[in-house]
Structures are given as structure tokens and as C-alpha cells.
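Forum: Protein Structure Q&A
Topic: Joint prediction for protein chains with partners

I've read a bunch of threads here and the consensus seems to be that you should model interacting components together rather than docking separate models afterwards. I'd like to see that in practice. Below is the full input, 298 residues plus whatever partners are listed. Could one of the regulars post the assembled result?
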Amino acid sequence: MSAALHLAKPDDLARLLPLVAAFHSEVELQSTDEERKNALMPLLEGSPHGAIYLIGPSKGPIGYIVVTFGWSIEFGGLDGFIDEIYIRPGVRGRGVGAEVITSLAGMLKSVGMKALHLEVEPANDSAMRLYTRCHFKARDGYLLMSRVL
Amino acid sequence: MSAALHLAKPDDLARLLPLVAAFHSEVELQSTDEERKNALMPLLEGSPHGAIYLIGPSKGPIGYIVVTFGWSIEFGGLDGFIDEIYIRPGVRGRGVGAEVITSLAGMLKSVGMKALHLEVEPANDSAMRLYTRCHFKARDGYLLMSRVL
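Posted by a regular:
Agreed with the consensus. Here's the joint model:
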């Protein structure tokens, strides 16, 4: 199973949308096709705020990963967030996720990124195992809070 | 007490650095003057990844707030992170923090930001009260994990 990463461009939207819809459905995240398209397009068009990579053959991707770019005074510069990662159910359990994250982390480090973050549900055992194997550590003693604007 | 916000520019570095040093010392975050300067300057110079605002009179600020910009497919576009907020100890307890966050949230919403996030230590009662009063809610059931690159 190839876990090659291809930077997704506007031409990839049609291949990307069904994968994103499948992911949102799986994690019970309510979103319409229009909302997904509006959130994805700026990143496909080269926004400085993030990038989307197709996993596997670019004509028949087996998943995608969205990494968004931020900044952290504590970490000393550019940081990133794994905003979404999805691998088709039929090809899970073969190490694709770990390969993708390791490859992405190396690439982002090489362009100067200082730290990579993600959010996980602690009850999701397979996700916890994957991220722990990929050297992510819980930000102990901190709570993430959000406000919709 | 005026909690006016001024976008900090490179010329403000000398006024900003002692405030950032005081904050890092207070929260026991190890950083050198050089590291702080390197992390702050790109934002002062107009990086798309964030902005720094001085709180109060621009010639004699009483604090600062660093907001970094990211992207979220879930929230549907641009999101932000309150990376650091600091108010001089002598002027705390007068509502400056709430005023600053409310004003910043309104400004960021007006330019299209969808959601604002922050990290807090749950044991820090005054911070929890401030953020709750400012309509931040815990991302229940999620754990933040980080990997230094």
C-alpha cells in the first residue's frame, strides 16, 4: 500500500469531496457539501493557512490529510495542526496513517516548522495508539477551549 | 483603565520584549531574549500567521496579546488561537482581560474569522473564570497532543 502524498490543487476537489464527506459522516460532524467546498477551496488555491495532501495514487486517493499552519511564541515559530486525517476503511490497519504522519512531519520540519499538534478523543484507542507511536504527547494539564465567532 | 488595542509593529519590539519576558517568567516558560525576539519579529513584520497587539497606551503598554491565525475545515474557514495574553500584575482584576478578549473577538469576527481557541490550565481559577465569562467552552472529550519537530 503506497502512502505517497500529493499536494492537492483545485483540480483535485472532485476527488477530495467524497473523502471529506465520508470522514465527516464517520465522525458525525454536520456539514453540507457547500460548506465543505468553501472550507477546502482556499487551501487548494494556496492559502498560507494550510495545505491538503491526497494519500496514495492521485487519481484514486485512499485518503487525505489537512494540515493547517499557525505560529507559536512558545515553540519559537511556525507550528501546524493536523486538522483532519482520513483513510478509507478498506485499507486501514496496514500502517498507512503512521507512514503519512511520519512523512508529513519530516517534510514540515524541513521547511522550518517547529511543532505539530492534533486533537484526539482519548476513548479512540486506535487513534491514541497511532499518535503515540508517531511521538505525539498529551499537553498535560492543559484544556483546549473554543468560542465560535 | 483603557484596554485599547494597538497592532504592534517592528518599532514596538523594545516595548514588547520586557512584557513577553515577564510573562514567560511568570508561567515558567524557558526562553532566551534571542528566542523571544525571533518568535515575535515575523508577526510584527506582517506574517500571515498571526498578529500582536499592545494593550493600553502604545508608548506605555500594560500588556499584550498574541493571536495566531489558522484554518479549520470543521469551523468552515479561518480560525485563531490566543497564543499568549499578559497584563501587568499591578493592573489586574479591573476587567482589562475580558475587555481585550471581547474587543479582539469582535474585530476578528468582522474580518471573517470563524472561531477562536485557547489553552488554559484548569487549575488556574482566575483564567478559567475569565475565559468562561468571555464565552469560551471546553472542547469536551478531546485531548490536545503535540510533537516537537
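The first helix of chain A runs from residue 13 to 26.
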